[in-house]
Structure formats: structure tokens, C-alpha cells
From TrEMBL:
Homotetramer. Gene3D superfamilies: Aldehyde Dehydrogenase, Chain A, domain 1, Aldehyde Dehydrogenase, Chain A, domain 2. Keywords: NAD, Oxidoreductase. Residues 29-490 form the Aldehyde dehydrogenase domain. The lineage of its organism: Bacteria, Pseudomonadati, Bacteroidota, Sphingobacteriia, Sphingobacteriales. It is an enzyme of class 1 (oxidoreductase). Its EC number is 1.2.1.3. It comes from the Bacteria. This is aldehyde dehydrogenase (NAD(+)). Pfam families: Aldedh (PF00171).
């Protein structure tokens, strides 16, 4: 791809990795960005030094006092403009995502669509930051709760959704009256620069000050500064469970708030009554979409013995059709993994599957030759395994789909589905109402997302997104996820000349 096509995003105009909203600076070690699609060097950014970080946080802190005073619907107007600008930049930003991260162009566009959708959602939300009115137990008293801006929000994002996850957090936090500091993955710094350039123009056009939306770049050390920083009220972190545990511990030590969206080990349960055509499409997209690097990717297929052989055959057949190659070429279904480190993790996992007794149905390999020069293209794998294998219990960020057989009642499949440490996304394919309802009941899936007759990935922004157990418990995006970005206050007002105490306590002087 010709990177000049992306000139509207200004990603190559400067190579500073720090921004306080309107201006760019930074002088720390260089981060180079290479495209996994062809191995070519795209550009570099200078990472943020500790002194520069201090400058960013001081500015953010100061500006939050200004921003929290702007009426929420007016803040919403800025997000409306952001959504408008994203509509204009959808193709160019989608291309950059595809080129720098390696997901298919369709999925790159899908990611930008999520950004647009969350902006629309946040604009409406800016007039709906409701609290409840509560009937007081005391005469002449009124009670209600209200939500105030929280302060500075730190956003740590992963490479796999290099723009959308920032937007989920940014759009909500900004309408809620918070200011934001973003630390993107060092694997996709140019996507972050593009987003920051987009929001920066809107801030400039509206004469808004520095410090509303900032970016800092660097490795885990920069993430640690954010997690340790008492001036940051909420740390929203998306990534591996390992990273999330470190962030959670550090933030908890200072009793700060964290919002964690970590690993998944997502399964689709396929019951005897499942529509198999739908099942195969849902499972294949879930397993190979984004080359298996979504946190909602389908990792396990738990299939009833009555339909097991049929599902197995259809899947193997479907995998033969998958075209792997340049993600910007719309004929291809699957692009590369993010880098060679990811490739070696994939190979390592395949080794373990074999060692632990798995039966490989569709072999995995690293592709070589024309078009595959980056060394990041691999083939998607299907392996027959048992759920308790150590490797199956782990999230491997690669296109490896595990096939697991269950017998008897659907409860047995649900138990297998729940027998992992992660709890993000889950699905059941069934036309049996009893099975579907059981799966969604308190005795069913223990995940934050539970679907019927759709796959595990591709959640809409309107629902709260996140999961339980080692997935971290946070909820981002739709529904009432905004509440995490605000502080709640309960107010009681006495409009009488008496002072009755709650709980019926008598206290006279
Ligand atoms: C992620 O993988 O970090 O459900 C987020 C999906 C997307 C979000 C995935 N809406 O696949």
C-alpha cells in the first residue's frame, strides 16, 4: 500500500509520540512501526520521557477543572463532531488499521464503524447521564443520586483493536466530563497518532485548550507510570490477563479505580438441534477473523456427539476455502499475525497441543514465498482436544480452534464451557428454547457475553462489553458502562424546619 494515500491522517508529518491535544512533542527512545502485511517500515515515533509524562499529566489535571464545567450536552457536541470526522476518514483510517495491524480491510472499516457508533451513542448519552430519585423515609426530605465527572482517565489499549477501544473509552469519558490520557500499544503507534490528529483538529476548531485528549507512547514502563499515578482517577486497560493483573494490583494499592477488559477463552456450544450452516460460518469467522487475535475470538467449539462428525467434516472443508494473504486485498479472508513474536507463540502452542495429546485436523504452518515475506502469515488450525489440557485452558492469541466433544445433556457442555479461568464471550447454537434459556440462566454461561445463534465475536457497541473471572470484570462501551467514568453522589435535602434523624433515632438537646 502507498502510505501517501493516508496523508489526510497526517501520520507521517511528525514523529513525536506525545501530545497534550493540540501540539506534539517527545524525545524518548524511538518506536519503529513495521507492517506485518509486507514487513515494510512505515514510520517511527519518539516515545514519552518521564519529564514529558509529567507535563502531560499536569496539563490534563488543570484542564479537567475547565472541562468538567462545560455542560455535558456541549461536551457531547465535540463528540458529535468527532463522529462526523471519523465518517469522512473511515476509509483512510480503516486502511491504516489494516496496514499497521494486519486485520482485513473489511475488519479495519468495521473498527472505524465501532468508533462512529460509540460517538453517536455518547452524543445521546450526554443528555442522559441520569441518577435516580429516591423516596426518603423522613418527611419533607428529598433524596437523589447524581453522577459527577471523575477526573483524569488513563486508557491503555492493545494492538488488536488499535483505534476502536480508544474510542469506546474516549467518547464516554469525554462526555462524562473527564479528560483522557491514552497509552496505545507500541505495536500500533501510528494508528494512535492518526486518531489523535483527528481529535486534535476538532479541539483546535472549537478553541478548546490543551489537556483534554492526550497521548503518551512507550512500553510497559509508561503503563506503570499511569497505574501508579494518584492523579489518574480511573485506569481503563485492555490486553492480556498478565498485564491486567499488574495494572489492577498497582491501581488497587493506591485505591484507585480500574476498568479491565482482559483475555477470553471463548466457546461456542453446538447442540444437536443447531443450524449447522450458521454454526460453521459463525465459528469460522470467530476463529480466523483478525487472525484469531480478538479477545472475543472463538477458541473452543464444544460439540454434541450426535453432530460432532458432521461439524468436524464441514469445518475442515470450510478451512480449505480460507484465503490467506494481504489483508488489503478483499479476496483474502485472513491476514498476518501482528509480528514474529506472535508467530513463535502460535508455533509454541501447536507444539503443546501435540504434546498434550491433541489430534491436529488442520495443520498449522508459517507461510513462505511471494506475498508472505513479512514472516507473519500462518495457516489457521483445528485440533481435537480435551478441555482440561493445559494449553486449552490458556488464551493463545492466534487462529487455533479447539474441537471438544460432549455427550448427554447441554448442562455438560455448559460445565465444560465454564471450566476455564476466563469469562468473556460465549455462544450456543440451538433451535431448542429450553437449551437456549438454560444457557442464559444463572446456571448457564458464566461469561460477560452470552449469545444464542450468533458467534462469540463481533459484539455491537450498544451492549456493555467485558467479562468475568480473569477477564477482569470491567464493562466498556454501551448500556450503563458510562457509570465507571463518573463518581456517584447521594444527596439528601431537608426542606422542613425539623431535623428528624434516619433510622428513627431520637436525639434531643
Ligand atoms: C477486543 O478484541 O479487544 O466483539 C474487542 C468484538 C469487537 C470488540 C473486540 N466488537 O469482536
Amino acid at each position: 500500500m502507498n502510505i501517501k494515500e493516508l496523508s489526510s491522517l497526517k501520520v507521517l508529518e511528525n514523529n513525536f509520540g506525545t501530545s497534550t491535544g493540540l501540539t506534539w512533542f517527545a524525545s524518548g527512545p524511538k518506536i519503529d512501526s513495521f507492517s506485518p502485511t509486507n514487513g515494510e517500515y512505515i514510520g517511527s515515533v519518539f516515545s514519552t520521557t518521564k519529564e514529558e509524562y509529567e507535563e502531560v499529566i499536569a496539563k490534563a489535571k488543570e484542564t479537567q477543572l475547565f472541562w468538567r464545567d462545560i455542560p455535558a450536552p456541549k461536551r457531547g457536541e465535540i463528540i458529535r463532531l468527532l463522529g462526523e470526522r471519523l465518517r469522512k476518514e473511515k476509509e483512510s483510517l480503516g486502511k491504516l488499521v489494516s496496514y499497521e495491524m494486519g486485520k482485513s480491510y473489511q475488519e479495519g472499516l468495521g473498527e472505524v464503524q465501532e468508533m462512529i457508533d460509540i460517538c453517536d451513542f455518547a452524543v445521546g448519552l450526554s443528555r442522559q447521564l441520569y441518577g435516580n430519585t429516591i423516596h426518603s423515609e423522613r418527611p419533607g426530605h428529598r433524596m437523589y443520586d447524581q453522577y459527577h465527572p471523575l477526573g483524569v482517565v488513563g486508557i491503555i489499549t492493545a494492538f488488536n483493536f488499535p483505534v476502536a477501544v480508544w474510542a469506546w473509552n474516549a467518547a464516554l469519558a469525554l462526555v462524562c466530563g473527564d479528560v483522557i490520557i491514552w497509552k496505545p500499544s507500541e505495536k500500533t503507534p501510528l494508528c494512535a497518532i492518526a486518531c489523535q490528529n483527528i481529535i486534535s483538529e476538532i479541539l483546535k476548531e472549537n478553541n478548546l485548550p490543551e489537556g483534554i485528549s492526550s497521548v503518551v507512547t512507550g512500553d510497559a514502563e509508561v503503563g506503570k507510570w499511569i497505574a501508579e499515578d494518584e492523579r489518574i482517577s480511573l485506569v481503563s486497560a485492555t490486553g492480556s490477563t498478565r498485564m491486567g493483573k499488574q495494572v489492577a494490583e498497582t491501581v488497587a494499592r493506591r485505591l484507585g479505580k480500574s476498568l479491565l477488559e482482559l483475555g477470553g477463552n471463548n466457546a461456542i456450544v453446538v447442540t444437536p438441534s443447531a443450524d449447522l450452516k450458521m454454526t460453521i460460518i459463525g465459528a469460522v469467522f470467530g476463529a480466523v477473523g483478525t487472525a484469531g487475535q480478538r479477545c472475543t475470538s472463538t477458541r473452543r467449539l464444544i460439540v454434541h456427539e450426535n453432530v460432532y462428525d458432521k461439524v468436524k467434516e464441514s469445518l475442515v472443508e470450510a478451512y480449505k476455502q480460507i484465503k490467506i494473504g494481504d489483508p488489503l486485498d478483499s479476496n483474502n479472508h485472513m491476514g498476518p499475525l501482528i509480528d514474529r513474536v506472535a508467530v513463535s507463540m502460535y508455533l509454541d502452542a501447536l507444539e503443546k497441543v501435540k504434546q498434550q495429546g491433541g489430534n491436529i485436523l488442520v495443520e498449522g504452518k508459517v507461510l513462505e514465498g511471494k506475498g508472505y515475506e513479512s514472516g507473519c502469515y500462518v495457516t489457521p488450525v483445528i485440533a481435537e482436544v480435551e478441555n482440561h489440557y493445559e494449553i486449552v485452558q490458556h488464551e493463545t492469541f492466534a487462529p487455533i480452534l479447539y474441537l471438544i466433544k460432549y455427550t448427554g445433556e447441554v448442562q455438560n457442555a455448559i460445565d465444560l464451557q465454564n471450566s476455564v479461568k476466563q469469562g468473556l464471550s460465549s455462544a450456543i447454537m440451538t433451535t431448542n428454547l429450553r437449551e437456549a434459556e438454560l444457557f442464559l440462566s444463572q446456571n448457564g454461561s458464566d461469561c460477560g457475553i452470552a449469545n444464542v445463534n450468533i458467534g462469540t465475536s463481533g459484539a455491537e457497541i450498544g451492549g456493555a462489553f467485558g467479562g468475568e473471572k480473569e477477564t477482569g470484570g470491567g464493562r466498556e462501551s454501551g448500556s450503563d458502562a458510562w457509570k465507571a467514568y463518573m463518581r456517584r453522589q447521594t444527596n439528601t435535602i431537608n426542606y422542613t424546619a425539623n431535623l428528624p434523624l434516619a433510622q428513627g433515632i431520637k436525639f434531643d438537646l
